[in-house]
Structure formats: C-alpha cells, structure tokens
Amino acid sequence: MNILILGAGQVGGTLAEHLASESIDVTLVDTDASRLQALRDRLDIQTVHGFAAHPDVLLRAGAEDAEMLIAVTSSDEVNMVACQVCYTQFRTPTKIARVRSASYMGLENFFSNDHMPIDVLINLERVVTDSIRLLLEHPGALQVLDFADGRVKLVAMRAYFGGPLVGRELRILREHMPNADTRVAAIFRRGKAIAPTGDTVIEADDEVFFIAATEHINTVMAELRRVERPFKRIAIAGGGHIGSHLAHQIESQFSTKLIEFNRSRCEVLASSLKHSVVLHGDATDRDLLIQENIDQCDAFCALTNDDEVNIMSSLMAKKLGVRQVITLIGKPAYVDLVQGGEIDIAISPQQATTSSILTYIRRADIARVHSLRRGAAEAMEAVAHGDRRSSKLVGRRLSEIALPAGASIGALVRGEEVIIAHDDVIVNAEDHVILFLADKYQVAAIEKLFQVGISFF
Amino acid sequence: MHLTAILRVTGILLSTFSLTLLAPVAVALIYGEDSTSQFGALFLLTGGVGCTLWLAFRGSAELRSGDGFVVTVLFYLALVFFGALPFMYDKTLNATFTDALFESMSGLTTTGATVFTNLDTLPKSLLFYRQLLQWFGGMGIIILAVAILPMLGVGGMQLYRAEAPGPVKDNKLTPRIAGTAKALWVIYLSLTLSCAGAYYAFGMSLFDAICHAFSTVAIGGYSTHDLSLGYFDSTSIEITAMLFMVLSAINFGLHFSVFRQRRPALYWRDPEARLFLCLMVGGSALVSWVLMQNPAVSETPVLDGAFHFVSIATTTGFATVDYSAWPTGALIVLLSACFAGGCAGSAAGGLKIIRVLLIYLQGLREVRTLVHPSGVFTVKLGSMPVPDRVIAAVWSFCAVYALSFFFLFMLVGLISDLSFESAFSAVAACLNNVGPGLGSVLANYQALNDPTKWVLAFAMLLGRLEIFTLLVLLTPTFWRR
Closest partner residue to A271 among B372, B375, B378, by Cβ? Predict the structure, then answer.
C-alpha cells in the first residue's frame, strides 16, 4: 500500500512511524526540511520538501500512485486544498484530512466529491475530547473505547485489593454477575500480556481489559475494585482547542472549572461557555489551585499544548488531593515516564488520531480500530462477510475459528443485539466482531481472516 | 459646531411638524368649531419659520455625528415651543405660557402629565391636537431611541448600534437612518391603526378611538376625558389598552425583526422582551394580590391591579379608577415599577428594562468574581457577550439617573409646597415620563406653582433624552471641544 502523508507534525510523524513499522510505503511532505531529515534518519520512509497543497509538490511526492492521502498539516485550508488537488489531478481513491474548525463542520453536504472531495474528516480535538469524556463518565477506568456506535465498550482498568474478584479465577465471573455478561479480553501483568482463560487468577495491580455491553460496564467495574462514586467536579487546565471543546461538552453534566493563561482567550471562553467557571492564571500556580479548592475536584484534566506544564500541574493537583488526574502528553517518551505513577491516565493525542486513521488503512471491512498501549496492542471492530464456504468465520462456532496467538474475540454485535463471545456462539454474516489483539503484528493475520474468499464473487 | 447646518435641519423638522397642525383644522371643520383660523394661522407661522430656516441655510455643510447632542436637544426645545402655541392661543383654554409649555413638553415627551382640567368641555380640535402631539412625540422618540441614541452611545445604548454582534444585530433594521425611520413608521402606524380599530370595535366613538390609539401606542397617557379610560367603564377596552401598551413598550427593532422573519418566538428569545413580559405578568399578579387582600378598595381587583400596573410600569399613565385610596404596598409597587420602564427602542420611559437586566447581571458577575478572584466572567445577553464599556456606560447612566432624581426631588421639595409623597411621585412620574403621580398630583398638575412646573418640565426632557444627551450640553467640556 502506498500512502501519502502531508504534514510532519506530531500527528503526521507518529502516523508515519506507525505505518512504516507495518511495511506500508509512506511518503511524507512538509515545509520543514530539518524535521523531515530527522524523521528520515529514524524511519524507513520517503520525504518530500515543499508546500503540501501545491500540485507540483504532490506530483513529486508520487500522488499519482498513492492509494491514500492523509492531510494532517496544521492548516485546515491547506489540507482541504491538497485533497481537492489530489482528487482533480491525480484521482487519489481515499482522501483523509484533518479539519479542525467547527465552522466547516456546520456545512451540510459540503465534504462530498462534488464540492470538497474529502472522504474522511479527522478532528483531533473531537477524538481526544470524546475519549476524555468517556473516562470522566467511568471513574476508575484507564481507557474506555466505544464500539458499534456505543453499544459495546472495551474498558481498561487496574484491579485493586478489595475488589470482589481480585484473587479469584475468571470462571466465577458468570456466577458473580448472572445478569451482566462480560468477557475479559486481556490481562497485562507487569507490562506483559497473559492470555486469559477460565483458570486465570486476577491479581491486584493487573491491567484488565474487558468487553461488555454499555449498560453493564459499571457493574463489571465494581467487581474489580471498590465502587467509585461518580465524578461531579472537574477542573480543566488549558483553554485551547481541546480544553474548550471538552468544557463545552461536559459543562452541562459536571460542574466545570477551566484554567487558562491568556487573558483575552479567557474572555472568549467566558463568553462562549454557559456554566463553566473560567479562571485566569497559570495551571502550575499552586496558590491558584488552592484558592479554587482543587482538593474538592474529582478530576483534573491537564490539556494545555505544553507537555511539561501538563505534567507539572497534574503532579501538583494530585499532591493537593485531586482524585484522578488525566494528562495530555504529546511526547511518547514522557508517557512511559509518568503513567502509572502519580499521574493516573496519560492521553496521547497522536495515538487517538492514529486509531481513527488506522480504521481506514486496514484491508478488511473494519468499522473501528483503537490503538492501545501506545500502539503495541489494537482493538478492532470488523464486519464478517460471505458464507460458510467463502469466509473463514461465518457459520462457525467461535471455538472453531483459528485465531492468531494473542488475539481474542470479545463480543459480536448482530443488529441491535450485543452477544458476548462464548465458545458456542456461531458467527453470522454481517455480524460486527470485536477483537482484541495483544500484539499488533497479528494485524495481517486478522485482515486475512476477515477477507472473503474468491468464491464469494 | 455647524450652527447653520443645525438650523437648516431644525427648519426641515419644523416644516414637517407644522403639518400636524393641519389635522386639527380638518377636525374643526368636521365638528364645526371656530378654531380653524387659529390652527391655520399657527400652521403658517410654524411652517413659515421652518421653511425660512430651511431655505436660508440651504446648501450649508453636512451634519457631523458629534452635532447629534445639540441637534437632538434643539429639536425638542423648538418643537416644545411651537407645540405650546395652540394651547396659548386657544380661546376656551387661554393657558399661560408656563402651562402651555408644560402641556406641550408633557405631550412631546409622551409623559402624559396634564395641567388642564375639564377636558370634556374643550374643543374637539384642540383635544385632537393634544393627542396628536403625543403621537408625534412618540414617533420622534422611537427614531431617537433606535437610530440616534445608539449613534451617540448614550447610557450603553451603543449596544444597539448596527455593528453590534449577536442577536441584537437583527435590530439593524435597514442600513440607513432614513430607511430605518420608514420601517419604524410603518410599524408605528400599523400598531396605531389596529389599536384604534380595536377601540372602535369595543364601543368608543371614532374620535375617541383614534385619539386614545394615539396616546396608547405613544406610551403617552393623554385622554380626551378627565376620567381617562375610566370614562368608558368597559373591561374589553381596558384589556385592549393593556395589550397595546405592552406591545408598544417592546423594542420596535424587535417588532421589525419578528415581522420580517415571521417568527413570533423572537419575542421570547430576546432577553429584554422576555424579562419585560415576565415583569408585566408578575407585577400585575402582585398588585392584584395586594388588592384582593383589601376588598374595600376595589371591586375588580384582578382587572384594576393588572391594568394600573401595566399602565404605570410601561410609563403610559392611563387610569380607570381613583387609586389614591389603594394600600400603600400596591402604590409602592407601581411607583417602583415605573423606574424600570419599558424596553429600549420604544416610546416608554424609565431606566429601560435592558439596563436593569444588565445591572442585575453585572451584580451577579461581581458576586462570582468575589467567590473566584481569578475567574473571568463576562456579562451575556442571551448568548452575546456585552463589552465592559457598555456595562460602564449603563452603570454611570443609572448613577446619574439616581442623582438627577434626588437633585430634582430636593429642588421640587424646596420650591413647592407639595407633601413628601406628592413631591416624590411628581418627580418620579415626570422623570420616568409616566404622567400621573400620587397625592396632590394624582390626576392633575394644575395646582403647582410656576417654578415647580418648569422644574418638572425639565425633568421630563431630562428623562426623555436619557439624561446624558441633555447633560452633555450643560458641561463646559462639550463647548470647549
């Protein structure tokens, strides 16, 4: 596969790294030659120096042969024009663009081949805020991922002493919760995946990934740790794109405070937000945090564009008594450094965006891909097609399906119905299958599994 | 200062105003009264002065927006002077200069305070002229409020300037003042016509229906009868009057938006109109409740309470019963309500609902700032943030309004022999352009001495021109400019 990425910023760079490691041919275009040089030294990719929207630059980057264009420069307009150029000049089949401004989103039917030919819009802010919102709605979870339009969720959480299930075998899950069916997809113990079986014993400090229907999530979580009371007060540091978007989303649900450094930005925020309290000041200012009773807050989200500020303010907030801190960290090196320590959850914007782009790169009919554990693991929702003859899945019991090592099927979604995977469940055509891959090098095998044989056509 | 240009524009206005003297001529002819020649002569005089000024200073320089203060005040003074002449030269009335001027001022500022008694015996042409004066004044005030004051930025009214963002932008009726005036005129005229039609349908004579429609839509309160609307003793007329008082006290810019977009929901979406409507309902209920507790003072407490609350709170000043015997609580509610007045951009007086709302929101912001010292809070009208400059202007307006009130109250107390209640209510009724007060000025200002009448006439103009327009001219800074 031949992919053209425009913009070698954080998102473009991470994406290139991700894709290059899957032996996809990546060409990266940017105006910053030194940044390209740095990436080329490290990764097996091709780079082109130039203005990403210019047809001659795109031609040099091999747009004629590219199967996919991913425009993730910092400018909406450059991204849009580049997609337009590729569509009219090079007939690029798939065009993915990052468009931030809410102003463009309000247009109906605008992003179509007749007007602005973009197939997939990536909105980094929306992806990140959605994932933070899910975390805030499920206190105690390390990661919450939506599948099948929110009907099924994959939740990652840490097991604690005192959880009813901790120290027990997995098989008793069903006896414990006759009404809430769930499946443990993976357990990470000290950073290593163990394939869960009925005999596996959950230990304290295990990172447990389980899949359940959305309405059962809280019941299952209560089995693994003390029940957390729902969050009420949220403090957000940083009123940039992500911070303000999050505040808009949650302010009717939680009592929200937003700390922003820039005075005029504060005023813009104060006039657009309805219920939130906008505070002018430095998120790392201890006095400000104390004055605003940060210890009474249930969650502190550090979402400025500065990793160091995010980490320091999170550490301070945690020290002052916030129950949970969620920190936005761009540099992958920092994530490893802080996660699991004082900082409860580190969110990487690149990872969130990568997930949403991966959905379109996988070869089978994939509805959703989430990249987990900094890209090492992957969870995906794929659609099974064909019949018993043409497909390796359809018409078979789950126990009969030859899954690659480290992969497990968590649930099936058939129409509106959520079926938690057990050995005797039979896969039908058009079922959405939710899989968990502890190791992403199995992706190719999974793609093959879902591809329909020749006889289908 | 472009004196010649200002005089030219004043001339144009006087010529236009002189046309209002032709209507009473027609009325006099219909009713066979002998005032035809008197109004005809005054028409020629006013028109003559107007045309002379117009033609003499033709081709002089254009006005600048800085001249707005002088022009506005001069307009009013010229109109009040020429408007007073028919009262002075009427043979039945033979009013003194002070009385005629007071009456003319009260009419043109749509206050509705009167110094004349035995209205029912006056010639119909003069009564018609008196109502027309209010109607003409009301129109002038709406143009002043929608087009001129926002331009001058008096008392935070730059909020209504055309370039203001947000929902208020709808108030930019049409781009030019001339176009705006025309649109407002159409709304004003159609409100008047429907009001007159309704009055006629509910049993008024055609003459009374037109006359009362004039003073209802202008939020004036003049009547052709001493008993005001009580003369008709009709529930349906009172309800009609309430409806049109409320409609006329709503921003005319909003009426225009509703009309153009055909969306009556805009009345409820506009924060000012919404608060105004809530106040009308709440205040009416409150006064009615007080009256119900005292069955002796009113036979129909709900109707009386609602009617008088709406009439006083919109600063119209109609009355149907003698409310002097009402419990003090009800009177205090009425008197307090007239300080809030109607919406900006209407002919109503008082502080205007929008300013009360902004001050309340600013107070709320202060409370929140005390709780969160680092917090940044903006005052928002609906979803639109209000600039701090506007808030400051509104604050100073209210402060100067209160100061002016107490200064005038003190002055009236010193130069008149009115009781505390009468003096207080007289100044409140004139400054807020309501009309009737309490105590000895309940129905009539006849008994007051001349200096008091002058002070009260000044109060009317001060309230009508939103204090600052007039006050600016009284400062040396303005003339040294």
Answer: B378
CB contact under 8 A, A271 and B372: no
Name the DSSP class of A400: G
Length of chain B: 481
Inter-chain contact B378–A263, Cβ cutoff 8 Å?
no
Question: ipTM of this complex > 0.90?
Answer: no
Q: Which helix (H) or strand (E) holds A411?
A: strand A407-414
pLDDT of the residue at B168: 40
Of B373, B376, B384, the CB nearest to A270: B376
Quick: pLDDT tens for B383-409. 788 888 888 889 999 999 999 999 999
Does residue B171 surpass a pLDDT of 50?
Answer: no
Mutate to test the interface with A, among B362, B371, B376, B378 (most CBs of A within 10 A): B376
Interatomic CA distance for residues B19 and A6, integer angstroms: 73
Per CB-CB distance under 8 Å, the chain B contacts of A266 are 376
Instruction: Report the alpha-carbon distance of residue A207 to residue A373 in Å, rounded.
Output: 11
Residue B59, sorted as left (phi over 0), alpha (psi -120 to 50) or beta, turns out to be left
Q: Is the pLDDT of residue B411 over 70?
A: yes
Q: Are B91 and B171 in contact (CB under 8 A)?
A: no
B262 touches chain A (CB under 8 A): no
Q: Minimal Cα–Cα distance from A317 to chain B, Å? A: 17
Residues 6 or more apart whose CB falls under 8 angstroms from that of A27 comprise A2, A3, A4, A5, A45, A46, A47, A48, A61, A62, A66
Helix ranges (H only) for A349-429 are 349-361
Single pTM value for the model: 0.81
CA-nearest of A271, A243, A241, A268 to A257 is A243
* Residue A270 in tokens: 């104060």
Q: Does B373 touch chain A (CB under 8 A)?
A: yes
> How near does any CA of chain A get to the CA of B271, in Å?
15
DSSP A204-220: TT-EEEEEEEGGGHHHH
CB contact under 8 A, B372 and A277: yes
Alpha-carbon distances of B373 from A80, A281, A291, B440, rounded to whole Å: 43, 10, 8, 51
Partner residue opposite B376 with nearest CB, options A279, A288, A292: A279
Q: Which of A67, A58, A59 is nearest to A25 (CA)?
A: A67
CA distances to A253, A296, A319 from A232, rounded to whole Å, are 8, 10, 19
| Separation of alpha carbons A141 and A344, rounded Å | 10
pLDDT of A218: 81
| Contact residues, chain B, for A265 at CB < 8 Å | none
Residue of A269, A271, A279 with shortest CB distance to B374: A279
Q: Is B419 helix (H, G, I), strand (E, B) or coil?
A: coil
DSSP class of residue A63? T
pLDDT digits (tens, 9 = 90+) for A9-33: 888 888 888 888 777 889 999 999 9
Instruction: Quote the crossing angle between the two packed helices B450-464 and B388-415, to the nearest 10°.
Output: 170
B247-291 pLDDT, tens per residue?
A: 999 988 888 888 878 888 888 888 899 999 999 999 999 999 999
3-class SS at A277? strand
Could B374 and A277 be called an inter-chain contact, meaning their C-beta atoms sit closer than 8 Å?
no
Cβ of A271 and B374 within 8 Å? no
Binary contact (B376, A280; C-beta < 8 A): yes
Higher pLDDT, B273 or B64: B273
∠ CA A42-A43-A46, nearest 5°, is 120
Q: Which of A80-84, A141-145, A254-258, B1-5 has the lowest mean pLDDT?
A: B1-5
Contact A79, A96 (CB under 8 A): no
Classify A362 in phi/psi space as left (phi over 0), alpha (psi -120 to 50) or beta: beta
